[in-house]
Design goal:
By secondary structure, the protein is α/β, with parallel strands linked by helices. The protein has helices at about 30-40, 50-55, 75-90, 110-120, 130-135, 170-175, 190-195, 225-235, 250-255, 255-260, and strands spanning about 15-20, 40-45, 60-65, 95-100, 120-125, 150-155, 180, 205-210, 220-225, 240-245. The radius of gyration is 21 Å and the shape is globular. One of its GO terms (biological process) is methylation.
Length: about 280
């Protein structure tokens, strides 16, 4: 970073940087995120932050875990926010490191508002959301001209860890050609059932991407009607993303990681030329 053509912002004492770590691969960190890691006195990190990313912190940096995992004992959000405030008021440089992007199902807005209320200065450092970058590592685009011009991102559970009951599943099923669902494994049977009940085809393609963009990435391609059973039989575990829609078929042509291991890709994964006469 010594040869950058622009200046990186100073990480000042008493500030909190709310920072996205991306979907997992440390190479997907932003320059600002890496700069923050190399400057921070304290890093308070979430469960989805890879150890290889934490190793980029400067020597002597205090690393504190504040991860939340569904169904497991987790720190209370208010306690995490108070920890950020306390360290900042001690004059330390505090990096709050979250998987993906802090403002995409990351509760970064809640923490930022707590800092505002406490009079603590902060910077927001966006990250690559797993719902975009993680799917790209699976060879699945969230939009494609031949399949969709809209996409909906939803969460698979609410604050209480249950399937969100305030979502209009009928509107989502009817209006969004592609649906990307975060944290959906626990309630996948209910979610897929709700989408089918509201009009989606049981045969619609679905992909489940576990541990996206890491060395442990696993991709299951299935259908909406069988996805819950297939996830259970294959032993797919969180953190996982679920994507519903025709874009899943594009993986046959865009699985660039698979191609590195010898997979033969097809130039027409949507089979648009099927049935056409050839000369």
């Amino acid at each position: 970073m010594d040869k950058l053509s622009f200046s990186l912002p100073e990480f000042e004492p008493g500030w909190v940087w709310l920072t996205g770590a991306g979907p997992g691969d440390p190479g997907l960190l932003t320059l600002y995120a890496l700069h923050g890691l190399r400057s921070a006195d304290v890093v308070i990190y979430d469960a989805l932050v890879d150890q290889s990313i934490l190793e980029l912190a400067k020597p002597g940096c205090l690393l504190e875990y504040a991860g939340k995992r569904g169904g497991k004992p987790s720190p209370k959000q208010a306690d995490i926010s108070q920890r950020l405030i306390r360290y900042a008021k001690e004059g330390l440089r505090v990096l709050r490191l979250k998987g993906g992007d802090p403002f995409v199902f990351g509760r970064g807005g809640e923490e930022a508002l707590a800092l505002v209320a406490a009079g603590v200065s902060f910077r927001l450092v966006p990250g690559i959301s797993a719902g975009i970058g993680g799917l790209a590592y699976a060879g699945i685009p969230v939009t494609h001209r031949d399949t969709n011009s809209a996409v909906t991102f939803v969460t698979g559970h609410n604050q209480g860890g249950i399937m969100p009951n305030d979502l209009d599943w009928a509107a989502i099923a009817r209006g969004s050609p592609v649906i990307v669902i975060y944290m959906a494994i626990k309630h996948l049977a209910q979610i897929s059932g709700a989408l089918i009940e509201k009009g989606r085809s049981p045969d619609e393609p679905v992909a489940v991407v576990s541990k996206a963009s890491t060395s442990e990435q696993e991709v299951l391609v299935t259908t909406l009607g069988t996805c819950a059973a297939d996830v259970a039989s294959q032993g797919i575990e969180p953190p996982s993303l679920v994507v519903v829609g025709e874009v899943v078929r594009l993986r046959d042509g865009l699985d660039w990681l698979g191609a590195l291991s010898g997979r033969v890709l097809t130039s027409d994964p949507l089979q648009r030329n099927q049935g056409r006469a050839t000369g």
